[in-house]
């Protein structure tokens, strides 16, 4: 087994421990395992020649997320930002440990951490690809349910979409417009896209 496959195996085993579940197409999955696989698949669609470090980062982007739930932190934006920062460091720490376990060099481990921590977004092509993929996973698997939950507050839905689309580049936007939304879902995506101009 290659180092890459060995790392995937460890990442997947870790994420399968997630006690939260996600249902899709009649099947039930450990939540972070499902999203890690889908993120990896989106990275490959966006960047078929993606390098090893980006692929490793895609498979471990939210590894162990359930271990640091949002409700462990107080309400409010400052606490939310603190949670997000500490959560990213948690993911990077787990990925680092597991990569070292299968023999990755420090330079590769450091590069994966840079992608996971989203350093230099908009100037680092790998980080931008990751951001595109994260937004596309949300749009493909979570957006329609979110929209239905907030269908009485269309401006909120459009604003959340706009914030997601802002993080993406033109390449990501092309994929975002190609997903099979409901008619109402597509209308909100188009409205958010128009706010970008």
Overview of this protein structure:
With 197 residues, the chain is mostly helical. Helix content is 68%, strand content 4%. It has two domains: 3-121, no CATH class; 142-197. The protein has helices at residues 3-15, 31-46, 52-60, 77-101, 106-116, 125-141, 143-149, 154-167, 170-177, 183-195, and strands spanning 21-24, 27-30. It has a two-stranded antiparallel sheet. A hairpin with a 2-residue loop joins strand 1 and strand 2.
Key descriptive features of the protein:
197 residues; two-stranded antiparallel ribbon; single chain; mainly alpha; globular; 4% strand; 2 strands
How is the secondary structure organized here?
Layout lengths: L2 H13 L5 E4 L2 E4 H16 L5 H9 L16 H25 L4 H11 L8 H17 L1 H7 L4 H14 L2 H8 L5 H13 L2
Antiparallel strand pairs: 1-2
Helix pairs in contact: 1-2, 1-3, 1-4, 2-3, 2-6, 3-5, 4-5, 6-9, 8-10
In short:
This protein is mostly helical.
**Chain oligomer state:** single chain
Anisotropy-based shape: globular
The helix-and-strand class reads mainly alpha
Order of helices and strands: HEEHHHHHHHHH
Radius of gyration: 17 Å
Strand percentage, roughly? under 5%
pLDDT < 50 stretches = none
Largest sheet, described in full?
A: 2 strands, antiparallel
Give the tally of structural domains: 2
Q: Mean pLDDT, nearest integer?
A: 95
Work out the helix count.
10
Strand arrangement across the biggest beta sheet: 1-2
User: How far apart are the termini?
Assistant: 48 Å
The share of residues in helices is 55-70%
Tally of extended strands? Answer: 2
